[in-house]
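### Sample
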Amino acid sequence: MIRLVVYLLVVALLAFGIAWLADRPGAVVIDWQGWQVETSILVAASALLALLAAVILLWTLLRLIVRSPDTIAHSWRNRRRNRGWAAVTRGLVAVGSGDAVGARRAANDAQRLLGEEPLSKLLAAQAAQLSGDAAGAEAVFRSMTEASGTRLLGLRGLHVEARRRGDQSAALQAAEEAARHEPGLAWAADAVIEARCLNGDFAGALAMLEREAAHGALDRATHRRRRAVLLAAQAQAIELSDPASARDKAQEAARLAPTLVPAADIAGRLLGAAGDVRKAAKILEAAYAATPHPDLADAYLHLRPGDASRERLKRVRTLTAYQPAHPESAMALARAALDAQDFDVARTALAPLLVAPTQRACLLMAELEAGEHGDVGKAREWTARAVRAQRDPAWVADGVVAEAWGPISPVSGRLDAYEWKLPPGLATTPMLENEAERVKLAIAAAIESRPPVAEGPVVDLSASGGSASLAPAHLAPANATLASVTPEAGGKAEPEKVAAKASPQLAALATPVVAMPHLPDDPGPGAPFADEPGAVPRGPYM
């Protein structure tokens, strides 16, 4: 629209000029070297315009002739470049579709047509990777590090190739060089932090994190969370060797991320050991209110190591009040009540969980039955149910279940990868180990507290119909009774009927006992415990 308006204005001005000259006639006389030309102004103006047009046309033709070699060369270069970009496009499509042959052919065309273009080199490296030519890909990436424009891209490729072949040293070297050139580069900073965490150099990992944050690569919330994770890991590593420093670092981590369970756990335990129970309780309560966790409950339960079990039961009620409806609160209360021998409270706490009990809830019920009534049968029944019950949450990172929390994933190396959630595809979790030990001890204590009676009759029946006898010596009267009902020669006695005629007690003892299934780490009834001679070593849960 604007162009049309401008065009109309120009035409109008020309028409106005021509009309103005037509209304004002005059003559133009040229007298030069005996030549005299006389014409009107309008004709002179028209001749001048024609002369200017001819000069312009002549100049254009002359310039075209002079510049024709450069023009032709530029045209060939553009055509070659367009073909090269078309090859890059074909190659990227081939890489994306998994066509190794097509990607290699397109990469060769792109390098031939485009030369040192970064995208042609990248396509060549990707084609080599797709073809399984690791050496070729690494050679291309190494050549890319020699140019400033592609140095970071080449270092990234060298890092990936080194990790694929398991060369952690070369991978770390490439990441550190990239981080030196660009501290805000996320993949380089994360790789350096991962390597330093694996080596236990948490101070170095923190320094790298601060450099990354200083260059604006992290927002404030992410920086606080990652710093808290690294401080918690550092406190975990030096908890035994330097408790004071570990306490300070755990406190800072809990302040930066109040919901980080390991930080709150370590800070609470170390503050409690140092006598600062109030501050420890405050940290643990804040973390438990956000994320109920058995480690937090256990740390809160043992804030003062010298407290009686009744005092611990009273204290845990305060903690569970922050999450009264959570299953973890019920199990924490039941655990404290079992320690305090308050079986009614334990049974009441576990009652809501028995509709769909988890493995830990089943083991707590087994311990309750063995401790309250000495009922080994029900205890073993609950132990058997635990095998088929739904699992409890555990620390999971990238599908791997770990016994304890860690700062990085054992699979991908990602920082802060562990989550407290239901593990996929496992029959048991590491959290069951402590509960299973308690159940074993409770069952053993119940067996030891029984009256000294025989655990079962031993009936010796001879092949010729001899008399049946019960092995225990203190059952001699019963043996005499059994002898009086011995069948005639050639007959066979049935142990259950013989014992039933002797006494109801012997009949119960003679009844076959069906052993319940056991947990994967439980050697079963009658097997020695882990601290007894001949015990079978416990198998891992994972």
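The first strand starts at residue 27 and ends at 32. This sample (HemY protein) is used throughout the tutorial notebook.
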